Amino acid sequence: MRDVDKPPTRDRILLATAELFRRQGYTGTGLKTVVADAQAPFGSLYHHFPGGKQQLAGEVVRASGAYFEALVLAVYDGQASTAESVRAVFAGAAAMLEETDYVDACPIATVALEVASTDEVLRRATAEVFTSWIDVLTERLDGDRERALGILSALEGAFVLSRALRTTEPVHAAGRLAVAGLE
């Protein structure tokens, strides 16, 4: 790739970090790996993110949250009914897990599980993303916040089980339960 074709350094750092967090988590991602994957000089990291890894992580969590929200909504909104929408989201999650050999799951959950008790700044960032997702899903479920919480909880829990068990069976089971009562 020619330099003129490369995204700006800051964007490359954000993208590389998001990918690494999805696959390795927050604690498993070192800053040297970030800049190497971003093809950026190490000093550029602190130029763009003077708050270091914590600032970078907060921005990545929020940007990834917005990206995945838009991706899920595109699938959800493309269906004819609420039940079909929920079914399609769970089916897409299962397909993604299989396609990535169970490496890629929810990047927000991956970080949230690591930092919930140790880093209040990042805990709040992950909470903001989850709250946004809950709110958007609640709107699509005609204000049924409890069902929205249940569906999101089922999906996030299924990601954890599927990665550990290396099977999409938990995602499919959670999807069937999430759809129950919607048809």
Automatic annotation (TrEMBL):
InterPro entries the record matches: Homeodomain-like_sf (IPR009057), HTH_TetR (IPR001647), Tet_transcr_reg_TetR-rel_C_sf (IPR036271), YxaF_TetR_C (IPR054156)
UniProt keyword annotations, A-Z: DNA-binding, Transcription, Transcription regulation
Entries under Gene3D superfamilies matching the protein: Tetracycline Repressor, domain 2
Location of the DNA-binding region in this protein: 30-49
Domain HTH tetR-type: 7-67
Protein name: TetR/AcrR family transcriptional regulator
